Amino acid sequence: MSRVMPAQRTSSYTIYRSLECRPDSYQGWYQQGNALRDGGRYEEALDNYDRALEYKPDDYWAWYWRGDILETLGRFKEALESYDKALLSKPTDYWAWCQRGSVLRQLEQYEEAIASYNKALETRPDDYWAWYNRGRVALEDLDWFKDAIASFEKALEARPDDYWSWYRQGDALRQLERYEEAIASYDRVLESRPSDYWSWYRRGDALRHWGHLEEALSSYDKALAAKPTDYWSWYQRGEVLRQLGRYQEAISSYDKALELEPEDDYAWYNQACCYALVGNTELAIAALQQAIYLNANEYPQLAKTDSDFDNLRENDKFQALLKGDLPFGKRA
Question: What 3-state DSSP class applies to 73?
């Protein structure tokens, strides 16, 4: 939520002319800091705000803009100190509390960030941005899913058609395994953005976990229509088809996934399972060989007990692969 202004051309003559007339003026140093900030000359702006603060050590605006610039520069601890100084002058200032929350999140002090957004909301209890950013911290950093849902609901009271609040509310509901409600949230997003990749993809995830596999497959297909080269949609599509017993189609989806991520051991292993289940022994062993090449610690043991490979148990090449007698490498 940084409020640093876009860069503007400002001549040195314009910047310094007022100070030549009033070299000991707080207002001169402060206004020059603003001009330098507007021009994207942040380090020089900081020096000017520091000079202004020599005259007015408790000035809210100089501390606030100093914090804003430091945040933009990624100097988050210093920015936090500046916002704290600003709040000494204006303890109920919405903007300083919000920016403080943003900085604390960058510093991975998540519960303190939530507390800062709470203080901002004491001043503006219906503010969209404070509720939304509070919800993001709760969802993405703290796994406080119920708290996140409550925050996004408040954000949606302020902006009922907001894409991000509906989408992230869906994510929080999905994490709580409230799949039907999550799908309803994703559907609200898709009303306004019918080709949105992420909403279709996460909708597919919710349906898959809920056990609605055919509908999940349709959602992944919609995600792929929006993003045809997405590895995860091809992989999850393969997983759904495998669970539906449509093994040949699953193999094709894993092929697509592996074109995009050729070193994904999960896709190789699951494709090997599908090949085994359709009776294609040679390609089952080749795919399993590749999976073991990528993760030799896991897949030999897993394949020993996986019922998908039961029809390969007597195959000499399969047994040699599990014992480590067959060289691991690219497809045999």
Answer: coil
Give 199's DSSP letter: H
DSSP character for 326?
Answer: S
Q: What are phi and psi of 226, to 5 degrees?
A: -80, -30
Residue with tokens 């399972």: 273
Looking at 66, 94, 117, the residue that finishes a domain is: 117
- Give the range of the structural domain holding residue 286, as residue numbers without chain letter: 263-332
Q: How far apart are CA 184 and CA 152, in angstroms?
A: 14
Q: Quick check: 221 and 237 in contact, CB under 8 A?
A: yes
Residue for token pair 């919000």: 98
Nearest-CA neighbor of 202 among 170, 234, 242? 170
Give the global pTM. Answer: 0.86
Report yes or no on 151 lying in a domain: no
| Torsional sign, CA 121, 127, 130, 132 | positive
- Tell me if 18 is assigned to some domain: yes
What's the token pair of residue 246? 């449509």
CA–CA gap between residue 203 and residue 174 (Å, rounded): 9
Question: 104 is written with which tokens?
Answer: 């604390």
Give 198-244 pLDDT, tens digit per residue: 999 999 999 999 999 999 999 999 999 999 999 999 999 999 999 99
Residues 6+ apart with CB under 8 A from 95: 3, 64
Say how many Å lie between the first and final Cα of the chain, rounded: 54
Q: Is 153 contained in some domain?
A: no
SS3 assignment, position 21: helix
Per cent of the chain over pLDDT 90 is: 88
**Which tens digit of pLDDT belongs to each residue from 286-313?**
999 999 999 999 999 999 999 999 999 9
Which of 95, 117, 139 is where one domain is finished? Answer: 117
Q: 């503006």: which residue's tokens?
A: 124
257 domain residue, yes or no? no
Q: How many CB atoms lie within 10 A of CB 9?
A: 8
Q: Is 5 left (phi over 0), alpha (psi -120 to 50) or beta?
A: beta
CATH code, domain with 38: 1.25.40.10
Nearest C-alpha neighbor of 152 from the set 122, 119, 177, 189: 189
